[in-house]
What we know:
This protein is of the alpha/beta class.
Amino acid sequence: MLELRDLSRRFGERAAVDSVSLSVPQGQMVGIIGRSGAGKSTLLRMVNRLTEPSAGRILHDGVDVTALSGRALRDWRTRAAMIFQQFNLIQRLDVLTNVLVGRLNHRPGALATLNSLFLRFSPAERAMALEALARFDLAEQALQRAETLSGGQQQRVAIARALLQEPRLILADEPIASLDPRNARVVMDALRDVNRRDGLTVLVNLHHLETARRYCDRIVAMQAGRVVFDGTPATLTAAEVEAIYGVPEEALESEAPRAAAAGAIA
């Protein structure tokens, strides 16, 4: 169980996240929606402790994540794997090595540093990485440089890398924002497969409401740093959507294809 208790983050006078409280059972897939600047990314980064909370607590299975430091904090970041919009792969390295990077925190400190310098991995770890790539239809690209892959392929490599961390939860920050509709679908299918097959908790920030409805068990909507809706996709009404986004739901649906086309062109 992941619990956020009155979690806040202030930047000067501005509250990016304002007293958010959520309880997320293990194995749930939660879509976090809202306009740009609503606090979605800041919230996920606080869960991983990439951004420090100004107030409140984060607990996971009774452990106070906000109190962790040193090795314990590094272990938490391994268990709470982050997936970013821009993939965060090492472009000059091959796909297999990028996935294997997910194993580095499973070694003792000095050994992890040495192995990261020389990129040494065991046969068992290489087998794990190849299995993860095969799972996402990327085994044939294992020895290609990451920079040769499409955006959708690179995001699936990032998911495979996250799995090699052996996490308890996955935090995906706008993972399909820069992808065309076909690749967005493939990446969301991969995240849902990880959620269903591995039983991992998935928190995913999404711009597209229809994607959240299609893939997520639960939708949390944020506005000005606060949670303004928390429920199942079926209970999110048109009136609530308009209150969250400031426009009718039909307008959002008409904007989505244009936004996706612009992303594909870029």
